[in-house]
Amino acid sequence: MSLKVNGFRPHAPSTKLATPTSTSSSTIQISAQTLTTCQPTKLFNYHHETSITSLDFDDSGQYLISSGVDKSIQLYDCHKGVHYKDIQSQKYGAHSARFTHDGLNCLYASTPDASATSEGKEDDTIRYLSLSSNQYIRYFKGHKAQVSNIEVNPAHNNFCSSSYDGTVKFWDLKSSSATGSITVGQNSVCGFDPQGIVVAVGRYPLGESQSGTLGLYDLKTFDKGPFAEVAISCLQNQLWNKLEFSNNGKLILISTDSREHYILDAFSGKVLAIVRLSYRNDPQWMSTEYPYSGCCSFTPCGKFLLVGSPKSIIHIFDVSDLRTDVERPVILSRSNDILKTRQLPKIILFNPKLFVFATADTTVKLWQPFENQT
User: Fold this and answer.
1) C or N terminus of the chain, fewer CB within 10 Å?
2) pTM, rounded to two decimals
């Protein structure tokens, strides 16, 4: 099925992507072999060695934004491989910056300020910003605590947000008030399927619990509850920081701050695989003082998963043949294909259109296949 909403057409999953320096007719196949040739080609330090908390590519794949605890949003041009703009948000902070489908516009969440918190004056507003003019388009108010996760619907002009107030709220870009809300009872992660029809909400374990929950909701009838809900056995005190559907619509990824991550069937919610990196179970695995948007990412074709680790290694897993008829999930503990980096790959995100992916910790790196470099 092909959707076209307000001039935006969700891109079809492809095993071939253009490189930034290629013409539109010159593409490269996504495979384990080409992924292992990737090397960092650009490094950006515009957050000045402070923690970066989110990355996002626009629909065209040309632009990338990062947000960080330095209370700034940085804009990069992936075609030219250059830093494009510095957007300061010193008054409100900046986290979970996400492009909308309308030009160089983005949403972002406020971050708590110590003085404001002590005075009970935290600002939990979501801001809609024109990156071109640096002017605010709209404010979205309704959450009662910090917003940890913003996800834009890939096919429509609406978005969802999760917050430490224990709710997931739904918004239309044209209205300042939420169009609906789900009470989860704790902070959670959320995400849309590629067609913008289903929203998934993941509630991770708290305290001594070792069980999380994934709920799948029809976006039109979310107020009636999930049409599917499954329990997920997971590590104690584990924080979930990202929920991502594969672009082919088959899989759901739950990225965490631990050595375990989860791949689920997008239709039933069943856990198909547990990515369990075979390092010592360090309680400070990928934990940071600040929330961040996940150390795992599907490739656009949905056949491979990139996973960062505290050993400064990016693991490449083939997830193209996960079966739904097995009783127990597959344990993916060792990848034959890896990439080494001097930087901690705390955040990983693959470009939707170009054979480029980004990693971040305190700096942002752009990676490309080596064989396509001049």
Assistant:
1) C
2) 0.91
